[in-house]
Amino acid sequence: MSGSDGKTGATRRGFLKGALAAGAGAVSAGGAEAAGGDPAITELQPWMREFGPGVDASPYGVPSEHESHVRRRYVEWLRPDTISAVNFTPIHQLDGIITPNGLCFERHHSGVAQIDPARHRLMINGLVERPLVFTMEDLKRFPRENRIYFLECAANSGMEWRGPQLNGCQFTHGMIHNLMYTGIPLSHVLNEAGLKPGAKWLLAEGADAAAMTRSIPLEKALDDCMLAFAMNGEALRPEQGYPLRLVVPGWEGNMWIKWLRRIEVGDRPWHQREETSKYTDLLGDGRTRRFTFEMDAKSVITSPSPQAPITHGPGPTVITGIAWSGRGTIARVDVTLDGGINWQPARLSGPSFDKSMHRFYFEFDWDGRPMLLQSRAIDSTGYVQPTKDALRAVRGVSSGYHNNGIQTWAIDSDGRAENVEIT
Ligand code: CO
Questions:
Q1: For residue 316, how far is its CA from the centre of ligand 1 (angstroms)?
Q2: In Å, how far from its chain's centre is CA 148?
Q3: How confident is the model at residue 77 (pLDDT cuts 50, 70, 90)?
Q4: Number of helical H runs and strand E runs in the chain
Q5: DSSP label of 284
Q6: How many CB atoms lie within 10 A of CB 321?
Q7: Which of 185, 238, 270, 355 satisfies CB 3.0 to 4.6 Å to 249 for a cystine?
Q8: Going from the N-terminus, what domains does the chain have, and what CATH number goes with each?
Q9: 156: CA distance to ligand 1 center in Å?
Q10: Is residue 395's pLDDT more than 90?
C-alpha cells in the first residue's frame, strides 16, 4: 500500500486522476493500484543502476538511512544529564514482539558502568554453606536457557497518574522492552553455594557507581530468575548490564539488577533506598504500598497514536498494539473505537510466552469520523486491565508507580491522534 508519506500520496493521486481520465482505473478498497503508469514501477530507480555498497561496508549492520527517525528519545525534564535520566523505546515504530537491542529504553542511576568482562565477578555470600566468586567464564559452564520476557519499569506511565501529559506512546508507555535472554537459572549458582536453613531473601547488587541494590524473595529467585549474559543472541549491551544482569520475570524493571556483582542470601529484606524511598507506592490516604513487585496486565495501542497518525484517509485501517502481564500470558485484548461503549476482540499474532510481550491487531474500515481508541488486556489469570479512574479510586493520585490504566487516543477526522482521558 503506497501513500504512507505525503510525497508518495501526491504521486498516487496524480496517477489515479490520469488513469481514471483514461478510463483504466482499477483501484482496490485498500488503495492499491493496478499495474502500469506509476513511475516508481515503470522507471529505473537510482539503486537499480549501480553496484551497491559491498559485503563489508558495515561489519556491524545498521538500519536503512530511511529509518534513522526510529530512535530512543527523552523528555526535557528527564534529560540524560540528570539523575532521573531515562530514554524511551520507540514502541510506536516497532512491530512483532522482540525489541531490537539498540532501541531498548535506558534507565540507570549513575550512568552506564563500563566493565571489562575479564575483571567482572559475581560473589554469592551470606546464608550459604560456601561463599563463592564466579568469573564470567565460570558462569557460562552451567547449563544455559533461552527465554523471552518483557521488562517494564515500575514508573512506566507514571507521569500520567494525574492526567494526560505526554503526547506519544513512546513517552507514556515506552519504558518497556521484550527480549530473548540467554543465561543460566539463578538456582544453579545458589545450589552450588548451598543455601543455609533460614534463607528467605536475596540482596542483588550492581557494580555501577549507584551500587543499585534490591531485595528479592528466595522463592522467586528459585522459581524463574536468571543470570543473563546475552540479549537477542548477542552479548548484553552496556546500558542493559553488560556483562551480567539479573532477570526477574514479570517483576518491576528496577529489580533486574544490571552489572550484577553480588548476591547476598539473608533471612529478611534489607530495606534499601530503592525499595523504601523509591519504588514504594504512595496511596491517597498517606499510607504506602511496599514490595509491589509484579507488573499488572497492561496494553496500549501503538499505531495509530500521537507519533503515528493515520495518513491514508478513510478505508481499510490497521490498529496495532502490545499487551503484557507479569502473571502469565495474555488471553485476550479488546479494542474500542468509541471510548469504551462497544468493545471487540483484537487478533493476537505471534508467539504467546509467559511474562512476554504480545502483539495484537485490529483491522477495520474507517469511515473518517473521529474516534476514541482504547485497548484492554485480559491475562491468563482472568485479570482485566482497569480504567485509570478505577486505579485512582484505590490508589489516589500521588503514586508514580504501577499505572496500568487503559490509555485513550482521540483520533480526529484527519487521522491525527492526541492523548486524552474520558471522564
Ligand atoms: Co512496585
A1: 40
A2: 12
A3: confident
A4: 7, 23
A5: T
A6: 27
A7: 355
A8: 101-289 (3.90.420.10), 298-420 (2.60.40.650)
A9: 11
A10: yes
